[in-house]
Amino acid sequence: MTLTPSPLLRFSHVNKHFRVNGQPLEAIRDFSLHVACGEFVAIVGSSGCGKSTLLRLLIGLDREFDGRIELEGRPADRSTRDCAIVFQEHRLFPWLTVTQNIALGLAAQPLEAAERDRRIVEFIERVGLSAFSQAYPHQLSGGMAQRVAIARGLVARPRVLLLDEPFAALDALTRQQLQDELLSLRGKASLTAVLVTHDVEEAIYLADRVVVMAPRPGRIKRIVTIDLPHPRQRGSFEFHQLREQLLHELTREGPYEPPGRDLIRDLPALYIAC
Ligand SMILES: Nc1ncnc2c1ncn2[C@@H]1O[C@H](COP(=O)(O)OP(=O)(O)OP(=O)(O)O)[C@@H](O)[C@H]1O
Ligand SMILES: [Mg+2]
């Protein structure tokens, strides 16, 4: 994929403190990251290392921080229309149908009724829910409800899609299906995406770069580029090696020493020799 050199999204020296019981809590320290137009970046890190806080700062849900967060050179919180966010739990309104829930994604857009309806139908189709357009959330499975949430996020054609552990509550098979759908939607809509996830495999499967966070205070420990071609093979040697590297970065100190390909290839022979 060709990336434009200028970043679409830019975090520069972001620091964030909370006050908890009157005491300061340093949640994020000196977070700097540039995300290019069309890039897919994943952020992984242990619970409490500030991943959701970063997304909240980015969309202006919390404006108290030091440093700068910019979208195309403008403070990001003033361009919230350019960003959409999908959370771990779908947050659909139970009294609205699939169509009505997705329509909420267009609430801030001055569109003609016909164009609005056309756009909603298009996105219901894209996430494979045409047969359920008039269903209510309680009539959907968890994976279907999450697809509605993704469609609601994408229907306004945001420049940046933010995903905060969007598939964490789903079973492994549904999660893999939605990951593939996300990749295909990304291709069609030339999206820039920032995904927060606990799942290292998900990050390697989807992202161009993975940002590994260290906890207390949350800060960048390492940024790993994933230059495997799509569709990525979860069972491949390269995939396995990246998974080992990221797990090492998440859980251990010190540099990662990759195992030699030769050693792994020769393992059966070694076992036989024993
Ligand atoms: N509104 C708040 N008030 C006080 N402290 C907060 C607030 N929001 C988050 N924190 C603290 O900031 C830190 C980062 O929280 P955050 O929710 O960003 O973590 P996270 O990486 O998303 O964790 P998880 O993976 O569990 O979702 C935590 O220590 C948390 O307790
Ligand atoms: Mg979180």
What does this protein structure show overall?
The structure is a single chain. The chain has 274 residues and is α/β, with parallel strands linked by helices. The chain has a single domain (7-91, 158-273), classed as P-loop containing nucleotide triphosphate hydrolases (Rossmann fold, 3-Layer(aba) Sandwich). Helix content is 34%, strand content 25%. A six-stranded mixed beta sheet has the order 6-7-8-3-9-10, sandwiched between helices. The chain has a four-stranded antiparallel beta sheet with strand order 2-1-4-5, covered by helices on one side. The longest helix is centred in the middle third of the chain and has 18 residues, at 172-189. The protein is globular and about 55 Å long. The model has no long low-confidence stretch (mean pLDDT 90). Adenosine-5'-triphosphate is lined by residues 18, 20, 25, 27, 45, 47-53.
Distance between the termini: 46 Å
The strands making up the biggest β-sheet line up spatially as 6-7-8-3-9-10
Amount of beta strand: 25-35%
Characterize the overall form.
globular
**H/E series, N to C?**
EEEHEEEHHHEHEHEEHH
> Total strand count, please?
10
* CATH class call: Alpha Beta
Mean pLDDT: 90
Proportion in helices = 25-40%
Give structural attributes:
binds adenosine-5'-triphosphate, binds magnesium ion, Rossmann fold, 6-stranded mixed β-sheet, 34% helix, 8 helices, 4-stranded antiparallel β-sheet
